[in-house]
Write a structure and sequence with these properties.
Blueprint: E1 2-6, E2 12-15, E3 21-24, E4 29-31, E5 42-45, E6 49-53, E7 67-73, E8 76-77, E9 87-93
Antiparallel strand pairs: 1-6, 2-5, 2-8, 3-4, 3-7, 7-9
C-alpha cells in the first residue's frame, strides 16, 4: 500500500502509518511488516512529507478479497499528547 504522510504544522509531530493494522473481509487481521516497508513513520520535524510503501502479508488469496480496512493510530506531539483523532480507519474496495 503506498502512503503519503504530511505534517502541515511547524511543530514536530509523530505518526506511525508504517505500523498500521490491516483487516480483511475474510476475517484476517495483520500488522504491517516493518522489515519490508518503507520508512513513512516517526517524527515529522515541521512541515515535511514522507511517502513510501507499507507492506502487509495476508494468507487470503487475492480472489477472496473484496475489501480491506486499514487502521492507523493518530498523531501526537513532543509531549505525547494526541493532537487529532485517536485512530483513523479507511476501507478500500479491492473487488474487481
Amino acid at each position: 500500500m503506498n502512503m503519503l504522510v504530511e505534517n502541515t504544522v511547524d511543530e514536530t509531530m509523530s505518526l506511525h502509518p508504517n505500523q498500521a493494522a490491516l483487516v480483511t473481509n475474510t476475517g484476517e487481521q495483520v500488522s504491517s511488516d516493518l522489515w519490508f516497508s518503507d520508512d513513512v513513520g516517526g517524527e515529522f520535524l515541521g512541515k515535511v512529507k514522507k511517502e513510501g510503501n507499507v507492506l502487509f502479508f495476508v494468507k487470503a488469496k487475492p480472489e477472496e478479497l473484496t475489501d480491506l480496512k486499514v487502521v492507523i493510530d493518530g498523531p501526537f506531539d513532543e509531549q505525547f499528547d494526541k493532537v487529532a483523532e485517536e485512530r483513523y480507519e479507511y476501507t478500500i474496495d479491492v473487488s474487481k
